[in-house]
Amino acid sequence: MATRVLVLGAGFGGLELSTMLSQELGDDVDVTLIDKSDTFVFGFSKLDVMFGRTSAEAVRLPYAEIVKPGVRFLRETVTAIDPQARSATTDVATHEADALVIALGADYDYEATPGLLEAGNEFYSVAGAERLAGIVADFSGGRAVIGVCGAPFKCPPAPSEAALLLHDHLSGRGVREDCEISFVIPLGTPVPPSPETSAALEAAFAERGIEFVPNRRVSSLDGARGVVTLDDGSEMPYDLFLGVPRHCAPQVVRASGMTDGVYVPVDPATLQTRFPGVYAIGDVAQVGVPKAGVFAEGAARVVAERLIAEVRSAQTSAAYEGRGSCYIEFGAGRVGRVDVDFLSGPKPTGAFQAPSDELVAEKRLFGSSRRQRWFAPAP
Ligand SMILES: Cc1cc2nc3c(=O)[nH]c(=O)nc-3n(C[C@H](O)[C@H](O)[C@H](O)COP(=O)(O)OP(=O)(O)OC[C@H]3O[C@@H](n4cnc5c(N)ncnc54)[C@H](O)[C@@H]3O)c2cc1C
To answer: What is the DSSP string of 218-261?
Structure first.
């Protein structure tokens, strides 16, 4: 009987893992890939939707297009996970496996920030970005605050990109001079492992008159008074709020007893949890790397290599290295890149590549190549 691998979550991690297992093992593996959604959306597409560069419909990639040997996609919602039994229950059935991979990502804890949804907006969900597209398009005067409500959060450069793209958007509409932009982040610099990247971003903020407020978290919003309260009790007036909500592991993961505090602890080299044959990859895991698609994908490759070796009764030295490259929109159609390494040295490092035309093309290829690899039928 083929080895049964149950993959919970078809995001960056789950898609890469299923693709690799299918490519290497074909019908010698029985992969069940489960997601509650019927489509995948790249994180960076949310910025494009918010600034009206595209529509939410255009960036949705339907899971129905996944046709890969050995892989079966099920649109179901996971309601319980039993790591000891390596099984998961959904709204439809209970699925058992020889290997269980938790790739359910990070959820948003909107209630943790009073007023966030009632008096502000968030751009980290597709629905939030879509709603903001209409609001941003009409904003033509006053103070816009881009605020982060807690760390860690997905893709640390994303709110910096939002600030620079908002500047472009308002300039393009001829209303920038009637608006102020402030950016609040609970980190000391925009991209802490890379001083060079942070310096380039801070210079870009200064050139555009964007107020940068580091080391502060947004703790609440008061719509009636039009103020944002920060974690030191200080207040900031606002007319438009673009928020990054506080993150947490999905409720079903927290209820499974696998988390230690907020996320799922794993062996950083193998991504195995404390339960044999149960792995956690991507944003749901606690590995010591940022929450970003490239890191989820890197973790997926290591778990795939280990499972492939197991099926073939072979040895593998595959170990997670915690490296990844993130593209950063600098505005005016320019894209830079930071190559970060979180686990190999005594402290994280990040090498910066200044914006260039080549990086614009590379970012485009980053999206299109994954779309092809994960969704196009195997050749
Ligand atoms: C604005 C923004 C910009 C970003 N830009 C970048 C970027 O440029 N580069 C980059 O590398 N990363 C970027 N990211 C981060 C990236 O999107 C995430 O880090 C990445 O998607 C994490 O992958 P994952 O596989 O861990 O989880 P996800 O991709 O979030 O996948 C988790 C999946 O689990 C499913 N799920 C959750 N709960 C259940 C349940 N109970 N039942 C069934 N299914 C469930 C979800 O529907 C989802 O499909 C960005 C994120 C945002 C918000």
So the answer is: EEEEETTTTEEEETTS-EEE-SEEEEE--EE--HHHHTTT--BT
The answer on pLDDT for 379 being more than 70 is no
Report the nearest-CA residue for atom 15 of ligand 1.
Answer: 292
Residue span(s) of the chain under CATH 3.50.50.60 come to 3-106+249-319, 110-246
List beta partners, residue 95: 88
Q: How far is the CA of 11 from the centre of ligand 1 (A)?
A: 5
Instruction: Compute the distance from residue 106 Cα to the ligand 1 centre, in Å.
Output: 7
Distance between CA atoms of residues 117 and 361, nearest Å: 36
Q: Is 49 in the pocket of ligand 1 (CB under 6 A)?
A: no
- Is 3.50.50.60 the CATH classification of the domain at 3-106+249-319? yes
Note whether 301 and 269 are within 8 A (CB). no
Rounded to whole angstroms, the Cα distance separating 279 from 261 reads 17
- Is 234's C-beta closer than 6 angstroms to any atom of ligand 1? no
Residue 340 CB–ligand 1 contact under 6 Å? no
Q: Which of 5-9, 78-82, 340-344 has the lowest mean pLDDT?
A: 340-344
The pLDDT assigned to 261 comes to: 80
Asked if residue 263 has its Cβ within 6 Å of ligand 1, the reply is no
CATH class for the region spanning 110-246: alpha beta
Q: Dihedral sign, CA of 284, 288, 292, 297?
A: negative
Contact assessment for residue 123 and residue 47, using Cβ atoms and an 8 Å cutoff: yes
Q: Does residue 348's CB lie within 6 angstroms of at least one atom of ligand 1?
A: no
The tokens for 293 are 């698609």
